[in-house]
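User: hey, got a sec? need ABC-F family ATP-binding cassette domain-containing protein folded
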Amino acid sequence: MANIINLDRVGKGYGTAGQLLTDVSLGLDESDRIGVVGLNGAGKSTLLKLLAKTEEPDTGRVAHRRDLRVATLPQRLDLPGEITVRDVVLGTAWLDEGFAAEHEWAGDAGVRTVLDGLGMPGIGLDDPIGPKSGGERRRIALAALLIRHCDVLILDEPTNHLDITGIGWLADWITTKLKSALVLVTHDRWFLDAVCTRIWEVADQTVRAYDGGFAAWTLARVERARREQVSEERRQNLLRKEIAWLRRGAPARTSKPRFRIDAANALIADVPPVRDSVSLARMATARLGKQVFDLENVTLYAGPKKILDDVTWRVGPGDRIALLGPNGAGKTTLLRALTGQLQPASGQVLTGQTVKIAYLSQELAELPGDLRLLEAVEEVAKRVQVGDKELSATQLAEVFGFTDRRVWTYVKDLSGGERRRLQLLRLLAAEPNVLILDEPTNDLDTDTLAALEDLLDGWPGTLIVASHDRYLVERVTETAYALLGDGRITHLPGGIDEYLARSPGLAQPAALAPVKSDRTGSAAGDLRAAKKELVRVERALSKLSEREGKLHKQLADNATDYEKVASLDAELRTLLAEREALEEEWLTLAETVSEG
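Assistant: Yep! Here you go:
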């Protein structure tokens, strides 16, 4: 596989953020599918800019193969308001003429297919860009990239503003249609696992590379921590619980590339279940009584659009509910009705007398900018009871990724992601017994999401989550309901798989885990997993070949040193046995892929 981008001892820093990368050396192959992960502020977006050469390193060198075409989707996008959708997607208003549209996508029908897949079925190609929302503009720009030919596609948070179906469609498009190398930053862990064959972790001013998707990376982190005898018990336990979830999850996850599986099994052999649902339900009933929310014959509108039509629905103590539906289905409207911010057109919403609601909206709430972060938390509570744990304000801040030094930062100086974390932190500090989260994963990195999930595992209250983050939904909720546009709240015993199968007018993307009874969809999932595993095995064989060549050279150089020769020969025999096993695995996988 040809190397097309090289970073050689690269360093990069900024005055306010400090040094982000130091002495980083990396190579990108033409067939790589790279997911970049790390804490907010670690340097993920900076790494993308260096790869694209939109920023120069302070030290070291970034080298591109000659005539390399790199297409990027940045987090911030400026498009002239007077141009049309067609100008952006097919014209040169945004991308220059060097990026030609792929022939099969260049016509109106091809463009329409992509726009529909990204959740914009009603948009007109001659519509002006000016009135479009920021989310619509990003999806239009993403469509422009998908229909064009490039050598490297770099995407910064491509799943933002996509619903679950759109994320599944994009994952399927990347795995089946994309012909270029891919580097992306996303907080969506399901998406990372669905499309990526390697993970680059940005941390401690360096970048570590791992084979496999999010599940393999999680296993690798624990294995690395075990080898290094990490003493941070809280972090170790959190990662082990994450592995237990991955291993006990849907078949689509457990068929991902397996990393050091024996070591991983030893690590999780004594891990308890993610949640003790019975105990939590008992505690929730004690705190909440029998009634939380009762909707009786409710009709609800969002503007002129009818969301609910004479609906009766009950939410009980300890319920952990996922609220699903496409963008514009009315999920936020329903949540606002539950919190009393919006009154129904008819019927009534009854709330239990002991209910204490915390509602995380999609908007950044007003925060006390003249206070330091820790003071803003202590303004709500100095000590917090979360399940059977009592945490100080400082400990709760640490759970959300705020270190000792960061807790003394003024709120007005926090980034958007940090303000989002603080908003959620203050809600939990108030010790509610009903928690309503509307798109809680916005601006949160994967480590913070894992910490939030760990906290919610022991939270004995009623939880309602509206989110397009499939991983989070499956991780923290136990039952699913959907708004499918028919004026009802539909219970989905099959969860997200059933939602995708039942969504009106939406085909289930092949990249998503299928409904269990769908044998054809299951085969598609198995085929995709086999292709990813095949790439991993080929990479491992390539590394073994390199090592074998070095061993043969060492044997020749040390021909007269019998002890050295014996040691090298033993190592060579071990390597050859490993290669033989990998070659058998490759043959099996290649047969599966060819039959698919």
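Quick note: Residues 519-557 form the longest helix (39 residues). Let me know if you need anything else on ABC-F family ATP-binding cassette domain-containing protein.
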